Amino acid sequence: MIAALFVRDERVRAGDDPHRPQTGGHIRQSERPMLLFLDFDGVLHPDAVFRRSDGRIELRADGELFMWAPILVEALSGLASVRVVLSTSWVRHLGFQRARKALPAELRMLVIGATWHSAMRRTDQGSIAWDEQTRYQQIATYLTQLSSAPTDWLAIDDDNRGWPDAKREHLLLTDSAHGLSSLNVTDLRAKLTT
Q: How confident is the model at residue 2, as a pLDDT?
């Protein structure tokens, strides 16, 4: 999770709706896409990410941001029906477009939405429900908003709090310090195709 004290909510420009599929890759009409809910911190790089006062994002651990993204790119190679939904605090703190743009091009073109949307309303108490939800609840909320909820979906995340036992098969849990680097590409690909 990005640690930040002062964050501004970037509004999604007209035509940049994160819940509408973006261009990139083609899915045959007969194929239903598999949704991949993707966290960044603790998955694509260690969970030691901070937003500096100048707005730049820095990793305070060995390595670099998105250093394990090539593992996911390789695992997704040739899987035309997989689409990515950003399930990361980066969208909440930086906005959908900036979070999406941070990904390597091969992943960016697969992104069709995010669990966070800038139009989410505050409660009577002044909080936003998304901020109080577990990662599973955020994903479940996203799925209920779809006209036809897919049965094929997977979340890659380093946070398993709140995941019901009945939905654990939809979670690929990573270690916060090692992310995807501790996974075998073949095993990851198998999880994406089952």
A: 47
Pairing of strands 82-86, 34-38: parallel
Task: Determine the Cα–Cα distance for residues 39 and 114; give it in Å rounded to an integer.
Answer: 10
In the chain, DSSP finds a helix count (H) and a strand count (E) of 7, 7
- Per-residue model confidence as pLDDT tens digits over 90-118: 998 899 999 999 999 999 999 999 998 86
Q: Which two tokens stand for residue 164?
A: 């019901």
User: 180 and 160 in contact (C-beta within 8 Å)?
Assistant: no
Task: Please give the model's pTM, rounded to 2 decimal places.
Answer: 0.82
Domain 34-193 classification at class level: alpha beta
pLDDT digits (tens, 9 = 90+) for 1-12: 544 332 323 333
- Measured distance CA(176)–CA(45) in Å, rounded: 8
Determine contact, residues 77/97, Cβ cutoff 8 Å: no
What does the DSSP assignment read for 157-194?
A: ES--TT--GGGGGGEEE--TTTGGGGS-HHHHHHHHH-
pLDDT band at 19 (very low <50, low <70, confident <90, very high): very low
Mapped onto helix, strand or coil, the DSSP state of residue 153 is strand
